[in-house]
């Protein structure tokens, strides 16, 4: 028993050490702007722009459901313009960033881990090194930058989409006028809500890409290993998003 | 000159190299042969710092590879071309982009890069394939692109990891001819890791037999062919026991 605990402790310390070394190498790789500068734009399109359809789809239906559930909850108790407040506040503070983050953990996290994992097991990462490239500067830094910059951008568009569909639902199904909905939106709005959503989403984007890159580059064992890394990347990214969500709520609210 | 000095390497307690010592002289092609899993590729990867030794070192022109800092290692890698067993081509890039990637790192102009890519593809008889993706090529063609990517850098050394594995006899012979031609035209020092005896006899100036993590015998092609060492004889004759 003690032997097993000891081994687990040693393994944990080793893993922490390896991750620390990875972060130190990453800091060094950031200096190689000539390598990652051009590639970051490509990744921004792939990780950000290409993720828009799924993110907007989720946000659109979230906005509809929020408006309907708010109306169901508040009818007969408080003025119905509160529906606007609930849709706006909930989309900005919670559902916009978290649902988009979870969707991108699946789409982006899996894609990054699978791509880098395949490159690892087919020696493409080794080939990069023999061509005198730093794989972290070539593969990891562009993805981290793309994730950190583009996930907030996608989240903002998602929030706007959710609010618009919530407004359309309120007008067409709840007999709520546009001025009433806007009144509700303004009622509880604070500028802090916007940057709270941005900070949260940026941390989600960084985490999703960091986990995908790290697990992808640690892949071993062919196709089975790639599958394992991909699954782990999605699960760990999704769990990290929920932990970060609670963390930012404690720290910033 | 490349010197393997008392190289030791183990993975999860499994010893792969156990005092591997070998000297590769400038201008020669050294073949390292041995059974599958004997550590030939592992030894080769130490030359470019893809693996760190547990003990011992590889010395390239007086530079101990494991002691080099990041910049020193990058400088060393600029002098060495590495041809991977399964080509390791970047599958999202065209053939031309694959060959050009290492040249871009060296800061050459686009004109010079295009010229070098053309020359390298010409040397491996793949003119006109620039715009094709690796997935569109046969196994032999992919290996030749791997060689083109290495020689386009005009390296001092070329390391070939199992260049004929998985190829039919005719394509293997083409690869052998290509390796000989590369040495004749570019005058590079080469290390070829293989278990293909016909290839070893064709491309090697000297052959080293790797067994149980160390060099069992090293000698010219004629010396290896005439060996009386039972382990080496068994290997070159392909006898199961």
Tell me what the structure shows:
- The complex is a heterodimer of chains A (253) and B (241).
- Chain A has nine helices and no strands.
- The longest helix of chain A has 40 residues, at 82-121.
- By secondary structure, chain A is an all-alpha fold.
- In chain A, 88% of the residues lie in helices and 0% in strands.
- In chain A, helix 1 (2-30) packs across helix 6.
- With 241 residues, chain B is of the alpha/beta class.
- Chain B contains nine helices and ten strands.
- In chain B, the strands form two sheets. A six-stranded mixed beta sheet of chain B has the order 6-7-8-3-9-10, with helices on both faces. A four-stranded antiparallel beta sheet of chain B has the order 2-1-4-5, with helices on one face.
- In chain B, a hairpin with a 2-residue loop joins strand 1 and strand 2 (14-24).
- In chain B, helix 4 (110-123) crosses helix 5 (139-151).
- The longest helix of chain B has 18 residues, at 169-186.
- Chain B is globular and about 55 Å long.
- Chain B starts with a strand and ends with a helix.
- The interface between A and B is medium-sized, with 13 and 24 residues.
First and last CA, distance of chain A? 43 Å
Q: Which term fits the overall shape of chain A? A: elongated
Helix content of chain B: 25-40%
How much of the residues of chain A is beta strand, in percent? Answer: under 5%
Low-pLDDT parts of chain A are: none
What's the Cα radius of gyration of chain B?
Answer: 18 Å
The DSSP helix count of chain A reads 9
In total, how many beta strands of chain B?
10
Topology pattern of chain A, helix = H, strand = E? HHHHHHHHH
Strand order of the largest sheet of chain B: 6-7-8-3-9-10
Count, helices of chain B: 9
Q: Could you state the oligomeric state of the chains shown? A: heterodimer
Portion of residues in beta strands of chain B equals 25-35%
Question: What class, by secondary structure content of chain B?
Answer: alpha/beta
Report helical residue fraction of chain A.
over 70%
The description of the largest β-sheet of chain A is:
none
SSE sequence of chain B, one letter per element: EEEHEEHEHHHEHEHEEHH
**Averaged pLDDT of chain A:** 93
Classification by helices and strands of chain A: mainly alpha
